[in-house]
Amino acid sequence: MANESPRMKAEVVAAKSARLEAEAQQLDLDIRRELECVTKSLTSLAAMLARMRDERLWQFLPGFRRFEDYVRHVLGDVARGKIFELLAIHELTEGRNSIPAEVVERMGFKKAAELARLEPQDRTPDLVKAALVDTVPRIRQKVQEKAQRATATRATQRTTRVAGAQLARAGH
Questions:
Q1: pTM above 0.70, yes or no
Q2: Region class of 65: left (phi > 0), else alpha (psi between -120 and 50), else beta
């Protein structure tokens, strides 16, 4: 590898760039097809957009300086906040305390976006069930209440840890 000529390195870079450009174009086509098909799931579209963002594949498509520019081009004149809500909805189906995509789809975009505002550990089964049946304003209220309680609990835990550490240092 150390003996590669500059020409050889340039060919490797060009080949990688061509592969990524082809991958980006294919993913772009998949995203557009998903958008056109009304019966397809919102979570699937969100997952593809998250991949386009996370792997920075949008950079291999011509004409986009930012991911938001790409999304606006594909989705139309969508507010920046809606883009991030869509990506947050995808994150509901990933990682700790994930929610099955089918459940997220059943609760709908607005309620899923509200639920996505919570930390994963704060998304309780009861709250997820409520998002399936309650109205958007009611879910928004429940999420705000849960977030406030969680913030207060975390602040109390931090204070307790700090006080415990101070007592330990003082020799008590």
A1: no
A2: alpha
